[in-house]
Specification:
alpha/beta, 7 helices, 31% helix, globular
């Protein structure tokens, strides 16, 4: 059984905000990839693997209003203007925080996350121009990535996909259960990755 299979919970958390993860094909080869684990932990989630999709409805396989969706934004942002205690910031087209983010966040039906290395995620961003129609959300985490010691992140604010989803859902969901389910799945993955490998027994002569 793979580490990913061991890390999947028995029951899915009942999340209100749909989580759509776009995964770069090369990320599937990573031993510590977390996108599949995140999707397995949530009742409303989908993992799409590829480089480009025509629009949000085609990616989801159903109708969806882009005005009620957000995407974790990878571009430049005016982080010096972010309130220190605000871990989720809605920004405008130039990376500046918008004045009244709460109505936007409350109205979100779903969130898109890009899964891969920093360069792979940027490739997904530029190859899918429909993402520009979504609300841009920037993470401003108070703590470094929990997976950081096992898989280095390029920036302090960069989190693993499952941690990013947990941070978003902790802010948007009415209960902490979905975020806690994601972090519990991450803890299982970390524990499995640190477990010493059992030596393979030599066959009898």
């Amino acid at each position: 059984m793979s580490q990913n299979a061991k890390s999947q919970p028995d029951a899915k958390a009942d999340n209100r905000v749909f989580v759509l993860i776009l995964q770069h094909p090369q990320e599937r080869r990573e031993a510590l990839a977390t996108a599949a684990i995140a999707v397995a932990a949530l009742a409303r989630a989908k993992l799409a693997v590829g480089l480009s999709w025509p629009n949000l409805p085609r990616t989801l396989g159903r109708e969806a209003d882009p005005r009620r969706w957000g995407v974790l934004y990878l571009g430049s942002a005016h982080r010096s203007a972010f309130p220190a205690e605000q871990e989720l910031v809605v920004v405008g087209g130039r990376g500046e925080p918008i004045e009244k983010p709460d109505p936007v966040l409350r109205g979100l039906e779903g969130i898109v996350l890009l899964d891969g290395t920093w360069s792979q995620a940027k490739t997904l961003w530029w190859r899918n121009p429909w993402l520009l129609k979504l609300h841009r959300i920037v993470l401003n985490p108070a703590r470094p990535a929990r997976l950081g010691r096992l898989r280095r992140e390029p920036r302090r604010e960069a989190l693993s996909t499952i941690e990013a989803a947990a941070l978003v859902l902790r802010r948007l969901e009415p209960t902490p259960a979905p975020a806690e389910a994601l972090l519990a799945a991450l803890d299982r993955l970390i524990a499995a990755s640190r477990r010493p490998q059992q030596p393979v027994a030599e066959p009898e002569p």
